[in-house]
Structure formats: C-alpha cells, structure tokens
Amino acid sequence: DVKVTQSSRYLVKRTGEKVFLECVQDMDHENMFWYRQDPGLGLRLIYFSYDVKMKEKGDIPEGYSVSREKKERFSLILESASTNQTSMYLCATQETGGFYEQYFGPGTRLTVT
Amino acid sequence: KQEVTQIPAALSVPEGENLVLNCSFTDSAIYNLQWFRQDPGKGLTSLLLIQSSQREQTSGRLNASLDKSSGRSTLYIAASQPGDSATYLCAGTESYNTDKLIFGTGTRLQVFP
Predict the structure, then answer these.
(1) Which residue of B9, B40, B43, B56 has the fewest CB atoms within a 10 Å radius of its CB?
(2) What is the band of B2 on the pLDDT scale with cuts at 50, 70, 90?
(3) CB A45 within 8 Å of CB B100
(4) CB nearest A105 (choices: B34, B43, B103)
C-alpha cells in the first residue's frame, strides 16, 4: 500500500511567520503535488515536482515555494504566512510512465492568525 | 478554462439504494479520470481510475464510466451503506502528456440506516 504522510494534522501560525509543511512518501514515486482545498473552490494545485530538484508552478503558486532535495520528501514553504493562506493543504504522489492514480496524504489544516 | 461540475452537490438517501453521481467537464477533451472519496477533515482516497484507453472501471459495488464525446463521467454505487457517507470528487486530465488533475467541487453523500 502507498503511504503518504504529512508532518502535522493541525497547525496554527501567526501572520508573517515562515511555515514549512512536509510530505513524505514510501513508494518511490517520481511525481509529488501540493494542493490547497477551500470551501466552494475545491482543490487547487499549488506546485508539483516530477523529480528531485525539479518543480513546476501550478495554478496558484503566489506566496508559496517548494523544495525537493530527496525523492521521498516534498516540502511546501510559506515564506511569510498571511491570513488568506488559512486552508487545508493536501500532498499527493504519483508514479510516472503513463497516467497512474494520485495518492493523497491525510492533510494539514493550517490556520494563520 | 476547464471547469468541472458535479451534480448533485448533496444527496441524502436511505440505506440500500442504488446511486448515480455525475461529473461533467466544460471542455469534453478529457483523457484520464479519477474518482475519489473524502471523509470529513481527511485526505482523499482513490476509488477508481479510468485511463485514456478505457471507458469504464469497476471495483466492488462501484462502477465508473467516462463518455469522452460529451465529457461526462458517472459513478454508480450499488446497494449503498452508511459507510459510503462521504464527499465524492471527480478529477480529470486535459491531455495525454500532463499529470495535472482538474477537480470538481464534489458531491456530499449521506446514507442513513
């Protein structure tokens, strides 16, 4: 079974803080994704990575950056957290070589006050 | 811009009913389609994947089909159970050479005993 873990289930941060969200997978998948989920807006792609040190912007990259130094780990960084970044953050992984299922982690509920 | 509509937005049914959930894309050019379920406050669980060369997939009481000519997908749940209560999301890719999924906003299902 694919296992995708996220560093925190719940996180509360203050405006202006630098925030790190981590995602780790154990299936040697090349692709990893970061989404945010908001009521009425659904899931929106922030960034994705198709290999170590490779990244591409998704639909809403503003205010975020990412890091992928090892294949199994993909980090989302909020350089200076703002209240409009309060959201549910979901990480996903996927094998390449065709289109395969995306597997999701449990999510991190981030509140910025 | 591709948009995904899921109908109905919410559904409440007694246990044992057969259900049909619908998903439609504004641009009918959909290549791969994945159905997920999401329990409150949790991540997404993959249910079924219809790859670009396929038209239908089945897993247990679930059956999903994709009509590429119209850009519509249907998830059929047979003999519903209270444990099926969750939000169901569909997501598709717009071309052969992308792994980026575009998500619908979901159908919230409640099955009561």
Answers:
(1) B40
(2) confident
(3) yes
(4) B43
